[in-house]
Amino acid sequence: MLSNHKKSTFTPEQIETLAANQFTAKVNARQIIFTLEFKNIFLSRYEQGDTSIEIFESCGYDTEILGRTRIYGFARRLRELVESGRPLTEDYSNAKAKAPENTDYNTMPSQLSISAMQRELVYLRQQVDFLKKITELGNDKKPRN
């Protein structure tokens, strides 16, 4: 049975177990950081309808160690990151979004390419809105909301 309570720290044995997973970028007693590959897999499978728990388990994670709070928190933060148009990274820094890289979407799996295109579209829309506001300011007009 998966625990509902948030485990605030990992034991040394749990850290060792989590670090052994290929999708773990970094882990310490207080947090775990997942690889970019895992985040892309997670997003793709989540969009296909798999649950967060199913995805973590199929990628080799012991969901008892992670706990529901960490798993669902990860899913929520990842969705927020994608919706904001910021690029996925292996950390949770608050770095400003970089311009999307020139990507050949034909070489990516379809779900992953759709996600990447959606992120790029959000980013480009933000740029257009910003440019509109700058243009309006340059014309001595009050910016639109």
What is the domain total for the residues? Answer: 1
Across the major sheet, the strand order is: 1-2
Task: Tell me the β content.
Answer: under 5%
Instruction: Indicate the mean pLDDT.
Output: 81
Count the helices. How many? 5
Distance between the termini: 49 Å
State the helical fraction. Answer: 40-55%
Radius of gyration: 19 Å
What class do helices, strands and sheet pairing give? mainly alpha
Biggest sheet statistics = 2 strands, antiparallel
Number of strands: 2
Return the string of H and E elements. HEEHHHH
Shape label: elongated
Low-pLDDT windows of residues: none
Describe the structure.
- The chain is mostly helical and 145 residues long.
- The protein has one domain.
- Strand 1 and strand 2 form a beta hairpin.
Summarize it.
The protein has 145 residues and is mainly α.
Layout of strands and helices, then pairs:
Blueprint: H1 12-19, E1 24-27, E2 32-34, H2 36-47, H3 52-58, H4 63-84, H5 110-138
Antiparallel strand pairs: 1-2
